[in-house]
Amino acid sequence: MQAPIILVIGNGGREHALVWKLSQDSAKPRIFCAPGNAGTAALATNLDLAAADLPGLLAWAKEHRPYLTVVGPEAPLCAGLADDFAAAGLKVFGPSKAAALLEGSKVFAKDVMEKAGVPTAASYTFTDAAAARAHLRKTRLPVVIKADGLAAGKGVYICGSVLEAEAAIEEIMVRGIFGASGRQVLVEDYLEGPEASILALIDGERVVMLSSAQDHKRVYDGDRGPNTGGMGAYSPAPVVTDALWPVIRAEVFDRTLAELRRRGITYRGVLYAGLMLTADGPKVLEFNCRFGDPETQVILARWEGDLLPALVACADGTLREEHVRWKREAAVCVVMAAGGYPGAYPKGDPILGLAEANALPGVVVFHAGSRLQAGQVVTDGGRVLGVTATGHELRQAVTRVYDATARIRFAGGHYRKDIAWRALKP
Ligand code: AMP
Ligand code: GLY
Q1: Ligand 1 pocket: which of 123, 285, 286 to mutate (most atoms <8 Å of CB)?
Q2: HSE of 223 in the Cβ direction (CA atoms, 13 Å)?
Q3: pLDDT for 261-320, tens place per residue?
Q4: Which of 16, 83, 106 minimizes the C-alpha distance to 377?
Q5: Are 414 and 363 in contact (CB under 8 A)?
Q6: Looking at the predicted structure, is the pLDDT value of residue 7 above 70?
């Protein structure tokens, strides 16, 4: 076969990891990344097309006929990219608009879970702020308020008091800070326990679960401070014990897919279940219709052999367990963020020490928010880098990753020093 053309859509650390893994594939693909970053530029051809530019992406794909298009972020999937590409006879890794609603609408996802008997927090849905406020008076605290639609990871409020909960309702429903995404809210029970991310490849029928990962959503050490897109991750996550896997498969993935099927919806791509491992068993916090970021960086660092055949098999409906194999190593990713993140942050600061860090054994530095400016890599986002290392066991991976972060510098850069601490606790 001629070198296949692959189009990867997105510009974060997840997409750099996808491009990095696909670039090692035995089919030696020619990779294009839209729009990509300074990291993907070294392995692929970056295209001047935003991930949200559906007409532009479709026009490019119709002209260049990629063998596969791999979609990183949720927004283009929720906007129907997979449907448009499929209608043009183009193969896509990623679910249809109808299936992506599992991430695009938390109200839809909750309804699917309730009908399917998937364990999740009990909740009420409101389309009216006054009714939501009235409900708060009889609810237990803390309580969780969620905007229905996409909110770039900012639509979830954990509220310790009725006052806080009322303020959340005000922001989402009255001031409308998330626009149409906040027309409905979920008010749900607060769950306790360690969290884990379990992702599964799905080909419309079959489910192949990927290795476990744990994300660190809070900005500061010890899980303090505001939520972020994710400050680091490691894989595997020992909190997901052998006994839990069949439970998660049956109660989360099989039940959800059966309910979608009942509604005439076929799921193809990767389904990400954010789980709370409660004393009563795993419960779903959220579904994502795409790979996690930074979970992908650690999962792909441990992926054995080619990735492309597994992604193609999802699109073709030919997925088998043998498509997915793991290295014995553990992997850790530490996100280096710009000063001020998750609030406002500067851009355009030079990043130094990348080559030195990348040369260390087991280390690969994924770019998340970077671009090239006159030959120099500069910061271009809140999450700037995802420094990733593998090791024989987790402790070695952690040592290696922090050796690498110590060599990288940019103005105001900050990162958590305790990634993987839960798994390393004596
Ligand atoms: P989500 O975007 O729904 O995953 O929510 C973001 C984060 O909020 C999750 O990773 C959890 O840490 C937290 N969260 C969401 N729902 C709940 C809940 N019902 N109880 C406790 N924490 C929650
Ligand atoms: N790491 C969380 C997410 O990708 O949504």
Answers
A1: 285
A2: 10
A3: 999 999 999 999 999 999 999 999 999 999 999 999 999 999 999 999 999 999 999 999
A4: 16
A5: no
A6: yes
Q: Which atom of ligand 1 is least distant from the CA of 217?
A: 10
Query: Residue 426 pLDDT more than 80?
Result: no
Tens-digit pLDDT profile for residues 79-112: 999 999 999 999 999 999 999 999 999 999 999 9
Burial class (CB in 10 A: 0-12, 13-18, 19+), 240: buried
Counting from 1 in the atom list of ligand 1, the atom nearest the Cα of 188 is 19
Q: Decide: 191 in ligand 1 pocket, CB within 6 A.
A: yes
Q: Which residues, including other chains, have CB under 8 Å from residue 375's CB and lie 6 or more apart?
A: none
Sign for the pseudo-dihedral over CA of 353, 355, 361, 364: positive
**Burial per residue of 187-196, b for 16 or more beta-carbon CB atoms within 10 angstroms, e otherwise:** bbeebeeebb
Burial class of 32 by CB neighbour count within 10 A (0 to 12, 13 to 18, 19+): buried
Q: Which residues approach ligand 2 with their CB closer than 6 A? A: 215, 230, 288, 292-293, 295
Q: Enumerate the β-bridge partners of residue 330.
A: 391
Average pLDDT for 140-157: 92
DSSP annotation of 426: -
Residue 220 CB neighbour total at 10 angstroms? 15
Provide mean pLDDT across the span 381-387. 97
What's the CA dihedral at 305, 309, 311, 313 to 10 degrees? -140
> Is there an atom of ligand 1 within 6 Å of 285 CB?
yes
Residue 425 has pLDDT above 90, yes or no: no
Residue 190 three-state SS: coil
Task: Report the separation in Å between the CA atom of 325 and the middle of ligand 1, taken as the mean of its atom positions.
Answer: 30
169 contacts 158 by C-beta, under 8 angstroms: no
Structure tokens at 292: 């996690």
